[in-house]
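Internal tracking record. Fields below are filled automatically when a chain is submitted to the structure queue. Please do not edit lines marked as system-generated. If the sequence contains nonstandard residues, flag them in the REMARKS field before resubmitting.
Queue: standard
Priority: normal
Entity type: single polypeptide chain
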Amino acid sequence: MSLDRRAFLKAAASATAAFGATRLFSMASAAAAEPTHSGLVRLLIESDRDRLIEQLVTAIRAGLDYPTLLGALAEASAREVRPYPHVGYKYHAFMVLHAVHRSTLLGRAQDRWVPVLWSADVFKASQAAEQRQGAWSLDPLPARPVPPADQAERALLLALEQWDAEAGDAAVVDLWRAAPRDRLFESL
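SYSTEM-GENERATED OUTPUT FOLLOWS
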């Protein structure tokens, strides 16, 4: 079942009216937010699309903050929506998050919860499209030793030069584990 526009706007307006701009940007400490992150990712993945906005508004009223919700949406999208063989419409659930964040920062105070709640609905639509094409979810990282950063970087560059997606996935994870993030992004 899809969430109709009226129900979505009603739920989003409820969140916006309840908290306005100041609540949106109240930052809980990373330590306080961490225990709820995995539960929130699970909620995003397992909830029915037609009830998700209502559940998120309830969580927002109970203290869920914007950075935690945005991070959980990124993780849920990365886990549940296959980015290839073709990055298409359904993967926009992940790719749109930067624009959602910018819209949230630059938008009117009374509308700032709307983009992130909209992106939760986009995630559920993408997840449903993925399930219609065959269930897929991101496998956990394999348990293996972390190679030295130079070796991981060479493996990544070789995989990219050879257009080897599987080797590239493994190499990018290895480089992420072995080196500072700046080095990973510089290599990419």
